[in-house]
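Late entry, alpha-L-rhamnopyranose complex.
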Amino acid sequence: MRKMKKIMSLALVLSLSVSLLAGCGSKKEEPAAPGGDTATETTDSVEGKNFAILVKSAGNPYNEKESAGFKEVIEAAGATAIVKAPESATAEAQITMINELVAQKVDAIAIAGNDFDALQPALKKAMDEGIKVLSLDASVNSNSRMVHINQADSEKIGRTLIQATNEMVKGEGQIAILSATSQAANQNTWIEWMKTELEEGDYSKLELVKIAYGDDEFQKSVDETEALIKNYPDLKAIIAPTTVGIMAAAKVVTDKGLVGKIAVTGLGLPSEMAEYITNGSCPWMYLWNPIDVGALAAHASISLVKGDITGAEGDKFEAGTLGSYEVIKAADGGTEVLLGAPFKFDPENIDEWKSVY
Ligand code: RAM
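Prediction complete; structure with ligand written out below:
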C-alpha cells in the first residue's frame, strides 16, 4: 500500500515533467490497421502534428483530469493537443465533433465514447481518412477503434464493488446502482460484472432493486438519488460507478441525515469525496489516476501516429514515466491496453490523496 502510493505519487510528479522518447521510434513495416486504413507510414517525430481528445462531457472534473494528462504528454512531444468536450454526454454531440476533427485533418482522435456502436460511421470515416482512432475510459466497438485504453480490469471493478457493498451492509438488504448514462460502455460493463458477482457469490440476502441513471450530470444524479431513497425506504446502499454519481449520492445521504443508514460506495475522485469519506457516508471507494488514463492515451496516440504500433495484439510501446505497455486482447473482440489496478480510498488514506487528483 505504501509502496503503491509512492509509485503513484512519483508517477504523478514525473508526469508533470514528462519528456518523450522523441526520435526513438523504430521504423518497421506494419500491417493495415483495423478500420480500413490502407498504409501505415512511420515517422520519428510528431512535432507539429495535431492530437485530439474528445471526452464524454464538459464540466466533469474526471474528464478534465483525463484531458490534462493527455495534453501534458502531447505538448511535451512538440505536438498540439485539441481538447473537446460536448455540453452533455450524448453520441449526437460527439458525432458533430468527430466530423469537425476529420474536416480539420487531425492526426489522431482519442475518444471516451458516449455510445458503444453509434459513433461507428463517424469514426470509420476518420480512420478511412488516415486518422488514428483510439478510445479511452468508455470504449467504442472494435470496428470503430484501433485500440482501447482501459483504466482497470472491468471484472475486478464490478466484483469488488459488490463485495465492498456486501461488507458495508453486513450481507443483508436492498441495494441500488446509480450509474452515468445508460449507453456508457464502461459503466455498463462494470454493472454486468456486478450482476455476475451477485449471481455467483453468496449474496442471497442482498437485493438489487434498481439501476438509475444520473447521466453524469450532478443535479440529475441528486434527483435520481432522492427518488431511490423515496421509493425504497429500506434501501441500505447505493453503488455509483461514476465520479459524478457517487458525489451526488453521498451529498444527498449526508444532507438527509442518513449517514450510517445508507452506505454509498463506487468510483470517486478523492478530491471530491474526501469530506464524504471522512463523514462516513461513503465508508470507502475505489478509483485509478484519471491523469494517467489521459497520459497513456496520449502515448498510445503518438505511437499510432509514428507507426510504431497499429493497435494489434502484441504491439508494445513506451509510455514515458508510466512505463512499457503491451496491447492485449479485449473482451469485446478488439484490443486494449490496461493502465493498472484500481486503488482503494478510505478514512486512513483519503487526506493524502485529496490534493493529488
Ligand atoms: C465519471 C465518468 C467516467 C468514469 C468515471 C469513473 O467521471 O463516467 O467515464 O470513468 O466516472
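The chain has a mean pLDDT of 91. Will revisit in the morning.
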